[in-house]
């Protein structure tokens, strides 16, 4: 009776929720508080050292607190990464057991071994999909940031160039101003060439599409709202087969979405014509 309760998906959900509030969160909060206190002490010791320079003890405390803050910062960073991974795994386990509970309510009787095996398989499938989603999200964020920053830099540098030419003609007497009308258009041309050579905008849009499709497919699998992912069999003998087929369907759908993105990216790269570098007029420095 106890073993069946322990392997019951409902009890597994409560266990995952209890484990999400593990001592790791308390430890992380405690280390953060100590880190902030050490940083505050370091700043206080630095101010004392500035205004009371003859106080040698303040210099020693400043060095000790600075070293303590650096160590705590590195430790907190690693602990936070471990906590994020554990929290993500706990959520995946809870999501994997969710539809098992729903299907077991429809069946009326639980087969503990089948449910535990099904839940473990669903965890692996969700982890695989989540890795792809995280990778596409990182690609989307990086490409979008590079595209916006480079476009903004090109516009600003191209717009500032005529002003710099005018300032140079006013003979302000500053020698380095003469080179700005050359440097700014050159940087703008380099940035524009990088943007046109690498399809940051296309990669960002494609990654965003992949993220939306994968997240939608993941939610369908978690909740079992599609006929591909439902295994509400009325006989326990058919439950494992239908659950296995649902997991296989999910993996096939995820791979199909991923392969479509990879194939479309490779086709665009093959069809891309030789890149033409935009020409931006570079004005040589005028003689004084």
Q: Would you kindly provide a written description of the structure presented here, covering whatever features stand out?
A:
- Residues 1-23, 263-288 are annotated as: Disordered.
- Pfam families: DUF4231.
- It comes from Planktothrix tepida PCC 9214.
- The protein contains 8 helices and no strands.
- Helix content is 82%, strand content 0%.
- The protein folds into 2 domains: 1-99; 111-288.
- Mean pLDDT is 76; it is low at 1-7 and 275-288.
- With 288 residues, it is mainly alpha-helical.
- It is flat, with a radius of gyration of 30 Å.
- Helix 3 (23-51) runs antiparallel to helix 4.
Descriptive tags:
mainly alpha; 288 residues; flat; disordered C terminus
So what's the oligomer here? single chain
Q: Mean pLDDT score, rounded?
A: 76
% residues in beta strands: under 5%
Q: Runs with pLDDT <50, length 5+?
A: 1-7, 275-288
Largest sheet properties: none
Count of the domains:
2
Radius of gyration: 30 Å
Order of helices and strands: HHHHHHHH
SS-derived structural category: mainly alpha
N→C terminal distance? 95 Å
Contiguous helical run count: 8
Amount of helix: over 70%
Protein name: DUF4231 domain-containing protein
Keywords: Membrane, Transmembrane, Transmembrane helix
Organism: Planktothrix tepida PCC 9214
Pfam families: DUF4231
């Amino acid at each position: 009776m106890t073993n069946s309760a322990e392997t019951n998906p409902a009890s597994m959900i409560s266990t995952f929720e209890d484990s999400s509030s593990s001592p790791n969160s308390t430890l992380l909060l405690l280390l953060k508080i100590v880190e902030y206190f050490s940083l505050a002490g370091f700043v206080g010791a630095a101010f004392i050292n500035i205004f009371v320079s003859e106080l040698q003890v303040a210099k020693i405390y400043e060095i000790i607190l600075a070293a303590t803050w650096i160590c705590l910062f590195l430790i907190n960073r690693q602990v936070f990464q471990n906590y994020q991974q554990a929290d993500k795994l706990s959520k995946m386990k809870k999501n994997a057991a969710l539809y098992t509970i729903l299907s077991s309510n429809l069946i009326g009787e639980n087969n503990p071994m089948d449910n535990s095996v099904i839940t473990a398989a669903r965890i692996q499938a969700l982890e695989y999909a989540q890795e792809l989603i995280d990778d596409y999200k990182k690609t989307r964020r990086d490409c979008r940031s590079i595209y916006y920053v480079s476009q903004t830099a090109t516009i600003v540098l191209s717009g500032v160039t005529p002003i710099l030419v005018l300032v140079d003609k006013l003979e302000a007497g500053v020698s380095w101003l003469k080179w700005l009308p050359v440097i700014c258009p050159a940087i703008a041309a380099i940035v524009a060439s990088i943007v046109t050579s690498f399809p940051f905008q296309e990669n960002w849009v494609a990654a965003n599409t992949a993220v939306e499709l994968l997240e939608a497919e993941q939610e369908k699998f978690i909740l079992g709202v599609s006929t591909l992912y439902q295994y509400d069999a009325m006989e326990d003998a058919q439950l494992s087969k239908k659950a296995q087929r649902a997991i296989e369907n999910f993996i096939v759908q995820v791979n199909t979405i991923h392969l479509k993105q990879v194939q479309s990216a490779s086709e665009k790269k093959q069809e891309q014509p030789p890149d033409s570098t935009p020409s931006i007029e570079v004005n040589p420095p005028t003689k004084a």
